[in-house]
Amino acid sequence: MASSNRTFSLTFLVMLSALSFHFSNAHFVLPVVKDNTNSKYSYYTSLLVGNHHPSRVNLVIDLSNKWSWFTCDFFGYNTTSHGVPCHTPKCDRYAPLAPCSDGICVVDAYTPSSNFIYSNNLLEDTTKVYKQIQQNSLTQLSNVNLPNFPFTCGDNVPLKGLSPHTKGVVTLARVHVSLHSQISSTFKVARKFALCLPSSSPTSSGYNGAIYFGGSPNYLSKSLITTPLVINPNSTSPIYSPGDSSVEYFIKVKSIEIDETPIRFRSSLLSFDIKEAVGGTKISTMDPYTVLHSEIYKTLINVFITKATVMKMIRVASVAPFGACFSSKSVVNDAKTGPKVPIIDIIMDGKSPLFARWRIYGANSMVKVSDTVMCLGFVDGGLKPTTSIVIGGKQMEDNLVEIDLETSKLGVTSSLLHLGTSCSKFKGI
Ligand SMILES: *[C@@H]1O[C@H](CO)[C@@H](O)[C@H](O)[C@H]1NC(C)=O
Ligand SMILES: *[C@@H]1O[C@H](CO)[C@@H](O)[C@H](O)[C@H]1NC(C)=O
């Protein structure tokens, strides 16, 4: 286990140096791995934690948690962490009104897999990130210390539901303690990060997913389609105080089209209903597939099936949790965009309604459930979900999804597949 991790990290460095000229705008980077177990929490990064003898810990990428947490008793963690003292400006900023235990600030972490909340000390330790360094005309990547990375610890209970490869989560939510906030404030780079979630596990040739901090690679930033980020006035976290807004990333969706035909549902589902504290659209790395309010889901499935029938796709029995499955033999495969199926467009708020479209081709809409069956990778969220549209991992894979907190925009490279480009060029170099 430990030695295979080491092989990966070495490969990663070699890969990065080989193609680092692509990163001229991205200042810091971490690898992203797609889990090969059947855990729901499939995307994780790998951090080195500790000062002199750092240990490697794999953490699920979470855009919603208020805290990063991991089990601190994992094998090999030679802790050099220290608690954040109570009544200090830092404790007040990270965790306002936090209780105090033995002079250390106490925080509440949420563990989605076991739906469990536990309180523990707020700790800090050094972690490492890969930084781009310009030397003459060459760009190199090297390991740099990110001191005082904040997190909290749990025992093994919260790990239930997580893959055996991971020991906790790292948060990228809109909070001071998130990894991107820490990188931006420590290294004085733009408050931006971008996810390139991989669609497959790493191979011997390296990682095929990444998180970029401080900016996105030049070759990708020019194909970003952007929409304003919006604040959900109502918290979506199980831990909140009255008046708290959500720490997740919401966007305004105007409509959904299938092969350019808008699907019909109550448009009020797309806005925030502050009386009930529901509604809106967010992105989530903790949901493997996009989860839709039942009313949206049902029309999406129906229109998709109608359009698919016209394309001579043959419907077969559904395989849970999906509601529309097809015989793979009846679907042609396109080398770039995946299975040739009706195209789903999420029409987002944006200056040009024609271009603020998040285009979802077969590669991001169809899930292969067996050698002979593929299903539309959207799931029914029931009639009372907190959020009407939760854009999940499958729909983001191999696209760059950038959160720019400087301009308050979400960008997505939804034309990437069509152009035959990858958001991470680590593979096969
Ligand atoms: C743990 O850290 C201490 C102090 O830095 C060091 O002397 C020791 O060798 C480390 N142990 C391991 C197992 O890395
Ligand atoms: C949602 O947020 C608004 C604005 O802060 C607030 O007035 C409203 O009471 C909240 N709704 C619920 C159900 O808490």
Automatic annotation (TrEMBL):
Signal peptide: 1-26
Peptidase A1 domain boundaries: 43-413
A GO-annotated cellular component: extracellular region
Molecular function in Gene Ontology: aspartic-type endopeptidase activity
GO BP terms in the entry: proteolysis
Protein origin, superkingdom: Eukaryota
Keyword Zinc-finger: no
Keyword field: Signal
PROSITE patterns in the record: PEPTIDASE_A1
Similarity comment: family membership: Belongs to the peptidase A1 family.
Name of this chain's protein: Probable aspartic proteinase GIP2
